[in-house]
Amino acid sequence: RAEAEHAAWEARGRVPSEIDVYWPDDLQFYVAEVLGFDASTGKHVLRYHIDKQVEELDLSGEKWYRHLRSDEEGGELLRRITAVFEAKRTLLSSPEDADREGGGSAGDVAGGSGDTGGTGPSAATGPGPSAGAAASGSGDSPLRRASAVAAMGRLSSGGAAPRAARGKPRPAGRCGACEGCANYRAGLERGRSVDCGVCGHCRDMTKFGGRGRLKQICEVRFCEAHPSSRKSRLAKQARLQAVNTAWAESYMEERDKWERGHEERCEAQRAAREARTAQRAQIRAARLAARREARRRREREARKRGSGGGGGGGAAKQRAADAPPRKREPPTPRVVEAVLESNGQPGYLERFLVKWAKRPKSEATWEPLRKLPAEQRAALVTAGREAFNRRVEPLLSGSPAEPSSSGVVAVQVPEHAAARCAAHLHTRWRDGRLLLRQGATSCLGYSTYGKTLSAHDAQQQATHTLLMTNTLLPLIRDELPGFGEMEQFLVAWLHETYGVVVELYFAHALRQSTLTVRSTGFDVHQDTEDFPFIEFTVVVKLTPDAPGSPHSRMRLVGAPRVFEYGAPAGSAGAFLARAFHASIEPDAGTSEHLKIAFFFRASTKGERRAKRGLSAAVLASGVEDELARRRRHVALELSNSNLEAQALAAEKKLAPWG
After folding, report:
1. CA distances (Å), 521 to each of 439, 513, 517, 542, 584, in order?
2. Got the DSSP string for 530-564?
3. pLDDT tens across 360-411, in order?
4. What is the pLDDT of residues 523-552, one digit of tens each?
5. How far is 201 from 211, CA to CA, in rounded Å?
6. How far is the C-alpha of 422 from the C-alpha of 570, rounded, in Å?
7. Residue 106: other Cβ atoms inside 10 A
8. CA-CA distance, 161 to 640, in Å (whole number)?
9. Neighbour-count burial of 399, counting CB atoms closer than 10 A to its CB (0-12 exposed, 13-18 middle, 19+ buried)
10. What is the pLDDT of residues 100-152, one digit of tens each?
């Protein structure tokens, strides 16, 4: 843990995880979390707790401290800072400090501001030094103004200014030293007020044609020491600034002392910890030496007792003790005897049930492909996949003389639909592209499937294949003649044969010949590798065989015989998509064939809808014809709704070409 904390500390540029950063403009410290450090720029990434803002800051030019998390430690530091600040504030509020800082006495300021009639000492003798400085506006810093005003007892004492006991507050008087007070006295001497007639207050007076709403005297007779005057407000701000500055200075002074003391305490703790560690190491070494010496002493005593007589037991023990230790033989490696089955999962998820040599079948284990010996891997994998196919497809257990033992069920789609589809593909399929919507979009081939019978040729595969995705199916149905008719026929046939409501998910178009073995002749694979929910695959041969030409063929792994397509156009074979199967390389002289592989998935929603439409009495009576009729009806409804939904999706996706 200590090493991890040290590594994190080094990664942060040797800065704690939380620090207090000083902002001079605000005279405050803000807590920030250190997120990282960029050694190239020397800047740290900080996130402030108060507003969650993140910024990069060079801490070498900033004032910062580590953030104190302990309440006890922080409380002690706060008490020290408060004591220093109170001493500074008391000094700031004393009259001597006001005389020293402002150049005048606090008594002059207090007397001038408290005289309601402007006849106090300042009014009688004229402006004093502090008043003159305030009037001239020069030689008066904010700290000096704050020091002078602090004697009035507001903010610096932490409370409000004293008020008259019970009743209306005493109005603020005139200072008697400013220009406004001189104009006011001149008006009193003349018996009439001296008004300029041009200021805002004069223009509001009724005698100058105003409405008389402000009820304020002329600005030339306004006292500059009045609380609402600008200089008074500046004095308040300066006083508050001085108090805040005093607090910040007190905080930094005491915090620097505290940090120096903290470093000394940490160094002392580190030295004490190292001393304890060294002492414990010495004690541990002494105990180990004592145990070793005790063990040697016991061995010497045992040897003396063994050599002193009492039979040969002691000598035998001594010989056993002196004999070199026997080496443990490494465990016998397990040898694969056979592979019983495959789990049928695609790709790297495939596992094989391995029977080990000299062990019963009950101890067989599921192992990945890499655990099989390399020299026997091909044969063992084939055996496991054969067992899997025989388990999922019962037709493979039939007699080799029966055509169904190939595991592929022959079916004939409408020949005219297959011929129309083949003619359109011969005309419009060029350079691996089938144009749709008058060239606005196109169906392309794929080039990345490498499970071919010979070396994979990506360019050839992209030229001789078409990937009819689920999104393109509505356009394919509309613009590829015969495709929709073959689809509807196969949906009905699969329902009648297997009793399952299915729907087409996607399809492939292929050109197969002796020249395209590297692209469209596929080695052992499953059609569920990309989409595990595919249930049935139907491969339709669109073109008829030439007279005297060999038939096109395919095989299921472990089948006693291969499957041969019929000679006419529309000859097809249906099989389970999860069964391992492969193409068979065409013989010499075999003509080129166009094929479409249809991939169907089961529709559980359609099955539930079909059964829900029947009454419980019909189901209980065992009438299967009504259920089959209902399934066909629902399959047709689902197919139509699926076509409409996919057409809408295609329209939205291809809207720019609409």
Report:
1. 30, 8, 4, 17, 7
2. S-TTEEEEEEEE-SPPPTTPPPPEEEETT-SS-EE
3. 888 889 989 888 888 888 888 999 899 998 888 888 887 888 888 888 999 9
4. 899 998 888 889 899 999 999 988 888 888
5. 11
6. 10
7. 22
8. 88
9. exposed
10. 433 333 333 233 333 333 333 333 333 333 333 333 333 333 333 333 333 33
- Cα 43 to chain centroid, rounded: 26
Question: Which DSSP symbol is given to 588?
Answer: T
Return d(Cα 487, Cα 417) in angstroms, integer: 10
CA distance 269 to 110: 55
User: Residue 12: left (phi > 0), alpha (psi -120 to 50), or beta?
Assistant: alpha
Q: How far apart are CA 540 and CA 141, in angstroms?
A: 98
As a three-state string, the secondary structure of 556-569 is ECCCCCCEECCCCC
Coil, strand or helix at 228: coil
Residue 216 confidence (pLDDT): 83
How far is the C-alpha of 161 from the C-alpha of 157, rounded, in Å? 9
Q: What is the reported pLDDT for 415?
A: 92
Closest CA to 108 of 123, 89, 92, 94: 123
pLDDT, position 152: 31
Listing from the earlier edge strand, what are the strands of the sheet with 571-576?
409-412, 571-576, 534-541, 593-602, 502-512, 465-468
Count other Cβ atoms within 10 Å, centred on residue 303.
Answer: 14
- Phi, psi at residue 150, to the nearest 5°? -60, -25
Is 128 within 8 Å of 135 (Cβ atoms)? no
Q: What angle do CA 265, 266, 271 make, to 5 degrees?
A: 100
| CB 477, CB 643: distance < 8 Å | yes
At 3, the amino acid letter reads E
Average pLDDT of span 232-257 = 76
d(CA 101, CA 232): 18
Give 294-327 pLDDT, tens digit per residue. 998 888 888 777 665 444 455 666 666 666 776 7
8 Å CB contact between 413 and 483:
no
3-state SS of 374-398?
HHHHHHHHHHHHHHHHHHHCHHHHC
Model pTM?
0.47
| Residue 482 · residue 420 · CB < 8 Å | yes
CA atoms within 13 A of residue 598's CA, in its CB half-sphere: 28
Pair 519, 399: CB distance under 8 Å = no
- Here the tokens at position 97 are 């400090």
The residue written with tokens 């001189």 in the block is 182
SS3 state of residue 356: strand
Q: Is 144 helix (H, G, I), strand (E, B) or coil?
A: helix
**Structure-token pair, residue 638:** 């689902």
Arithmetic mean of pLDDT over the chain: 75
Say if residue 244's pLDDT is above 70: yes
- Distance CA(616)–CA(477), nearest Å, equals 38
The half-sphere exposure of 599 on its side-chain side, counting CA atoms within 13 A, is 21
Cα(261)–Cα(79) distance, rounded to whole angstroms?
16
Measure CA 616 to chain center. 51
Which residues on adjacent β-strands are paired with residue 539?
573, 597
